[in-house]
Amino acid sequence: MASQLRKSAAKASKPAAKAKPNGKGKATAAGAAKTGALPKKTDKVGTSPSGPQLLNKDGNSRRKVLILYTGGTIGMSDVGGTLGLVPGSLLKQLQSLQELNQMKMPQCHFDEFSPILDSADMCPEDWCKIAGVIEKAYYEYDGFVVLHGTDTMAYTASALSFMLEQLAKPVVLTGSQLPFAEPLTDARQNLLGAIVFAGLADLSEVCIFFGGKLFRGNRSKKVDATSLEAFQSPNYPHLAKLGTDINIYRRRLSDPPRGRFRVHKIHVTQIVVMWVIPGFSDEFFECLLKSKSVKGVVLMLYGCGNAPARKVCFLKCLRKMVDAGIVVVACSQCSTGNVVLEKYAVGKAFSECGVISASDMTTEATVAKLAYLMSKGLSSEDCRKAMQQNLRGEMSTEMNTLHINEPMTDLSTRMS
């Protein structure tokens, strides 16, 4: 691990250029303060009463990383025979982590939520809290690490990718399957790897680092409840890999931003995810329509976008939803692949009703994107249009699909 840190730190020894609000040149404190992005020196950047704590005072790198602990297994301790969240416990453990004092490691400051949360309790209000910490500290740090529980990490990463517009610095989420204090824990490698990537000037997007791989945040899913390689990116390759060397696949990274960094809030929560299962009742969808509070529906369909063809009332209900201004987005129940509504007759009928395809987006990214667009106050029609556009690298712009009515000879020629 030490050799990996030295190699990666050599690439990260040059401080990142900090963008002005217009995205050009180096920012000044005065210029940033005019936009309200830079806090006064007397302000507390983080959420704990004492503010961020320096972890590695012996570090000699000029790059600075803020570590924000929101909660999760990584910082849990034994409380009466069960794992529980103890404020301040993780900070004490990290202060004795010798790897942070490796030559050229970024200077790390640590702060934590108050109260710290199990990720199952995370909600859009907490996403806004995380984004707010990043916004206030944006011009003081070169990168950010968000320590988070694994269960909803993909939702938070997806949400932050939309909330942090024109992001010019790395925001890396990580956590662990075992607490930091456990002897066989994955917490150390995940944390140190996240710090290394957060200290690089090459990254300008929200990522998840877990199990030795760096993923685009809004392409990620938790796919295993117990494995130390719990996350995957089903429809987009990983951005980097940590082994005996650190391999960064630069062509897969997001392009650097061209505009001023902005933070958006997400406050719309009236979104329902509905799975189509064999024998489902139309009454569930009728109830959604009658509730008057639902603004968006993520419809989990079979395969490429298939559903029962005999459910005529179901189609009528979907039409009523769309006419009522509810945005209905079709996702696949499969982790890999994409939704092509025109492939099957039922899917085509969905499209004609006004249901839109999520393409190859994850369910987590679809929910976060829909909540983000609705929070901007867009009309349902504008939301439908924007949902089908690639905003933060969350969906593929070109889908390679094979048309089933093409002759096999044509297909073999085209694929050769």
CATH topology of the largest domain: Rossmann fold
* Radius of gyration (Å): 23 Å
Helicity range: 25-40%
> Helices and strands: which structural class?
alpha/beta
Number of domains: 2
Number of distinct helices? 12
Known CATH architecture of the largest domain: 3-Layer(aba) Sandwich
User: What fraction of the residues are assigned to beta strands by DSSP?
Assistant: 15-25%
Strand order of the largest sheet: 1-5-2-6-8-9-10-13-14
- Termini gap: 43 Å
Shape: elongated
Helix and strand arrangement:
Layout: H1 2-11, H2 29-35, E1 53-54, E2 64-69, E3 76-79, E4 82-85, H3 89-94, E5 107-112, H4 124-137, E6 143-147, H5 153-163, E7 164-165, E8 171-174, H6 187-198, E9 206-210, E10 213-216, E11 221-222, E12 231-232, E13 240-242, E14 246-248, E15 262-263, E16 271-275, H7 283-291, E17 296-301, H8 312-323, E18 327-332, H9 345-353, E19 356-357, H10 363-375, H11 380-387, H12 408-415
Parallel strand pairs: 2-5, 2-6, 6-8, 8-9, 16-17, 17-18, 18-19
Antiparallel strand pairs: 1-5, 3-4, 7-15, 9-10, 10-13, 11-12, 13-14
Helix pairs in contact: 4-5, 5-10, 10-11
